[in-house]
Amino acid sequence: MAQNDTLVKGWQPVIGLEVHVQLLTNTKLFSPARNNFGEDANTLVDLIDMGLPGVLPVMNEEAMRQGIKFGLATSAKIAKTMIFDRKNYFYPDLPKGYQITQLHFPIVRDGIVDVDGKKIRIHQAHLEEDAGKSMHDQYDSKSTIDLNRSGVPLLEIVSEPDIRSAAEAVNYLKKIHQIITYLDISDGNMSQGSMRCDANVSIMRPDSKEFGTRAEIKNINSFKFVEKAINFEVKRQIKCLEGGETVEQETRLYDSTKDETRSMRTKEFANDYRYFPCPDLVPINISSELIKDISNNMDELPEEKEQRFRKVYKLDDYEAKVICAERQTANFFEEVSKNCDPKLSAKWIIGEVNALLNKNNISLGNSKITPDNFSSLMAKINDGTISGKIAKEVLEEIWSTGKNAEKIIKSKGLEQISDEAELESITQSVLDNNSRQVEAYKSGKDKLFGFFVGQVMKETQGKANPKSINEILKRLLSG
Amino acid sequence: MDKIELKNLLFLAKIGIADKEHPKIIEKLTNTFDLIDEMNELDLDKVQPLNNPLELNNVSRKDSDNDRNAKKDFLENSPESDEDYFIVPKIIE
Amino acid sequence: MNFKTQREKFRSKSISAKEAVQETIKRAKTDKLNIFINCFESEALSKAEHIDNNFAKFKDQPLSGVPIAHKDIFCTKDLITTCGSRMLKDFKPPYDSTVIDNCNNAGSIMIAKTNMDEFAMGSSNETSFFGPVSNPWSENLVPGGSSGGSAACVAADITCISTGTDTGGSIRQPAALCGITGMKPTYGLVSRWGMIAFCSSMDQAGPFSKDAFGCAALLDAMASYDLKDSTCSKRKKICYEKSLNDNLGNLKIGVIKNIEDLGIHKNILNSYETSKTVLQGLGHELKEIDFSELSSGICSYYVIAPAECSSNLSRFDGVKFGHRSAKQKDISELYMQTRSEGFGDEVKKRILIGTHVLSAGFYDAYYLKAQKVRRNIKNKFEEIFKDVDLIFMPTTLDQAFEKNRESSDPNRMYKEDLLTIPANLAGLPAISFPNGLKNNLPTGGQLVGNYFSESLLLNITNKIQEVTDWHKMTP
Predict the structure, then answer these.
(1) Residue C110 belongs to a domain
(2) Is the CB of residue C220 less than 8 Å from the CB of residue C64?
(3) pLDDT digit string (tens) for A182-194?
(4) Nearest-angstrom CA–CA distance, C226 and C188
(5) Is residue B28 part of a domain?
(6) Cα A171 → chain centroid
(7) Domain extent for B30
(8) Which residue out of C101, C315, C351, C355 would a mutagenesis test of the A interface target, given it has the greatest number of A Cβ atoms within 10 Å?
(9) Whole-angstrom Cα distance, residue A130 to residue C342?
(10) Residues C438/C270, Cβ–Cβ less than 8 Å
(11) Assigned domain for B93 exists
């Protein structure tokens, strides 16, 4: 088989991911409290989120619509009837002592995600409520509870164990991220916890027909950590098995500071969640009309956008893929292309803009680059006002100030000198001041041509139009 | 129903009952299950379970907010809190 | 004083709401039966003044100017709501239940919250943390449960109406044992928002009064479609009080075949036979029905109700509200001790049963099977209602019994719910009304109707009460 490049020391990792995605609704899944991140503790808590005696949940239909969108985007089966269940366990940030989720009748089943040409199957995606947050650093012997997150709608996306390496897991996760942000059903922000990942990891010999015992790794909150946690866990399991031990079916926690997974304290008894249908909620039938309506109003998916960009903006495969990797970037590109040459914009976005974003590790939306100031820069390149080199300088200024390119060019006097007479006089004086080199050139040292170009550039602080210099130099030197 | 099972139930239900009380509890539970077990004589293979008597469907709400937050009351009426949080003994993971 | 007289006195301005409240509170203060958990005198007086000051607005409301007592299971904003439990001994809900809201808007004035079995689990009111309630007919006897306080309150003539909840008979059985009228409406007719849940798929709130008239008026106030309860049924509003005047025509009423085989006491059977004659006298036709599935209802009920309650009561963990144990060296001890101290024995027992029937390996054998029995019972009712308009049966197997009753059968108390449970499993409406006096104690008869046939049930009960006097008996 061709997948042997995924083997680690002769072992085949087998990975399934459970991705929790916080949905972008106005309100919570079962309560009318606002769904938002980063507000003061316990201010987004409704009676229902407190789990007060006598309160009852009512389902938010927008959460359902968003779940259906995900199903449609992954060519999945949308449930004809979905049913909410209770998952019973005690934890201080779980106010009711149970979580409302979907076990047997999830909203979405049997989806497919294409990850670099490989189909990874989605077992199911179900709606459930998030828990609150418990924190342990404020008091020595106490923990504190914030219920703002309690009841926030989650879509839990459960893959089949189709993933074979840590790198593939990351790519799968990136693909999920791309889909949910394209659908605008989540902001996918892993650092704020709006996208979280648990990984089921096992190993087996490549010729084995049965999977090994899996460990579930919890609490992985960045793309980087997904890779690290899985790599660590695979190595740990190999060590286990090769040392004659067995891998235990257990839940492990990834500790990013120590870069290791460790067993969560095993309790005296195994937990038993005692799922049963939530008697406070009724089954929800999803009609084909509703699905059609959602489908008709759904935003363009990455592949569709790439295809359109290739056709409309004449991007090549690579450009289209990179520009469409993130919805934000694609929208930016499209906005800019209203006024500018798309190929030029694409080149600059893929090259210089992405380099700046990566270097500073922020997203386009959070940077000072806007379609407006970026367009102004493209226009100045296009009409020859500035050279590519100067343009980089201007882009950096835009990055740090957010100013318009024209303003920057004016205030810094960066316009390209294209005036033939002026350039000729500058060039002549450069030649006059370097008569030795001129002689050497004329006696056959062709390489010195570059030296003269450099000198003219130096004199003009790089503003000279390189094409004009070439012509003028050639003329003057041959004279 | 033996003692181990009761201990498991007590663990799951988070109810503390002293060991010496266990035989009495087990007896009570066993009696109730004797009553429940009469159900086993029924032939139910072809019957669909019924979760909710009216079998309603499709009840949902619009995604619009309604602020019923009462942070101060919620916290003050809780067994232990500070100005911002509910407080419990330290949770050790 | 019956409800109609009480309300008429207010409407005709012969007494003010404030005077009605003062008189009621005077009676409540002499209570020796332990009917109330908390009284709210000053709140009641100021509410009464508000109603008096807005006479025109409240005059035509269904409960205008009438003092009422509510079962302590309905959340009342900023007023202690205990559910009969130590767990909620000092709990002040930050909101009103829909039932309380509706009753307030209908012009009634709450004077107190009534005693009840802890979290509504019990049939004798002996599981209350606040002590048992005595039966107004005899202090040694129980009033029934779980809405024992509410039933006793009306039977003892303290208020003329009160609210209750019925999960397996908790309105009808105490109504029968106290000699008053009480109704469990169709599941979903009255909103459960703010009613502390015991078994969510069966709990239903309903009215108590001496007679069908009072129950009709109170149900007019209580019933409403509520967007806050997903299991609430959207229906055209009916005025039950008005429909009491409808002509019933001749109905077909199902009566239980071989009822003597069910282990029912002869006093109850005597009253039952008498009531049958009354029904026939009103022009209705009796038809024997076979209801041998009745008894499987108990098995099903004692699986489903504990299962749901084990989950519903998980929120009482000492973290956000209610009791918290002083013993809390870690979170596990906090849970264990809080729940051990906060819950009484019967509640703990049902939580453990519920935990067991839902746990891995037992779900199919118990929970799923019980839900199938439930379907059977519903199907059986549907079949019966093809032939008859109503079903008539006794409410209880026996009359009020002694407190701390000893029995050789440990399951006796549960088995006594035989005749009330089926209506809960199927979600059907049922009414219990006084139908006799034996050994100076009341007996109760029960009518079960098809879904949303409340007006029919109230109407026929009213017609019975027009020609009989059992509802006028007082202790």
Answers:
(1) yes
(2) no
(3) 999 999 999 899 9
(4) 9
(5) yes
(6) 10
(7) 3-41
(8) C315
(9) 28
(10) yes
(11) no
**Could you give the count of Cα atoms lying within 13 Å of C74 in the half-sphere of its Cβ?**
31
Residue C14 is part of which domain span? 3-249+453-472
Tell me whether C347 touches chain A (CB under 8 Å).
no
Tell whether C304 is covered by a domain. no
**Count of the separate structural domains present in chain A:** 3
CATH (domain of A424): 1.10.10.410
**pLDDT per residue as tens digits for the range B4-21:** 689 999 999 999 999 999
CA closest to C78 among chain B residues: B73
Average pLDDT (C3-22) is 98
Which of A293, A314, A331 is the endpoint of a domain?
Answer: A293
In a domain, C187, yes or no: yes
- Token pair 């599981």: residue: C127
Q: How many C-beta atoms surround the C-beta of residue A43 within 10 A?
A: 16
Please count the structural domains in chain B: 1
Taking the Cβ of residue A53 and every Cβ of chain C, the question of whether any pair is shorter than 8 Å is answered with yes
Angle at A396 between CA A395 and CA A401, to 5 degrees: 95
Count of positions (residues) in chain B: 93
User: B6, B11, B36: which to substitute to probe chain C, counting the most C Cβ within 10 Å?
Assistant: B36
* A97 touching chain C per CB within 8 A: yes
Smallest Cα–Cα separation from A111: which of A73, A81, A80, A79? A73
Q: Which residue has the tokens 């929120």?
A: C315
Q: Are residues A26 and A168 in the same domain?
A: yes
Q: Give the residue among C136, C144, C154, C275 at the shortest CA–CA distance from C210.
A: C154
Using a CB-CB cut-off of 8 Å, the residues of chain A touching C315 are 51-53, 95-97
Predicted pLDDT at B93: 58
- Residue count of chain A: 479
Q: What is the secondary structure of A334-380 as a DSSP string?
A: HHHTTTS-HHHHHHHIIIIIHHHHHHHT--GGGSS--HHHHHHHHHH
B 45-64 residues with CB below 8 A of A? 51-52, 55-64
Identify the weakest region by mean pLDDT among A314-323, A378-387, C28-37, C263-272: A378-387
Residue whose structure tokens are 């650092």: A191
Whether the CB-CB separation of C377 and C300 falls below 8 Å is answered with yes
- Torsional sign, CA C152, C155, C159, C165: positive
Instruction: List the single residue in B with minimal CA-CA distance to C409.
Output: B31
**DSSP count for chain C of H helices, then E strands:** 17, 11
* pLDDT level of residue A119 (50, 70, 90 thresholds): very high
Domain boundary among A412, A441, A465: A412
The model's pTM: 0.92
> Chain A to chain C, count of Cβ pairs less than 8 Å apart?
102
A289 has a pLDDT exceeding 80: yes
In the stretch 152-181 of chain C, residues with CB closer than 8 A to chain A read none
Q: Same domain, yes or no, for A277 and A313?
A: no
Instruction: Give pLDDT, residue A2.
Output: 46
A364 and A403 both lie in a single domain: yes
| Across B38-64, average pLDDT | 93
Q: For chain A, say whether C311 makes contact (Cβ under 8 Å).
A: yes
Shared-domain flag, residues A117 and A236: yes
Same-domain status, A165 and A278: yes
Give B86's pLDDT tier (boundaries 50, 70, 90): very high
Q: Looking at the 3D structure of chain C, how many domains does it have?
A: 1
Largest CA distance in chain C: 70
User: Residue A301: which residues within 8 A CB-CB, separation 6 or more?
Assistant: A73, A179, A182, A183
Chain B interface, mutation test: which of C190, C325, C355, most B Cβ atoms within 10 Å?
A: C355
Distance CA C272, CA B48 (A): 35
CATH of the domain at C39: 3.90.1300.10
Domain assignment of residue A73, given as a range:
2-293
Task: Indicate whether A239 and A142 sit together in one domain.
Answer: yes
In a domain? residue C181: yes
pLDDT band at A467 (very low <50, low <70, confident <90, very high): confident
Co-location of A448 and A470 in the same domain: yes
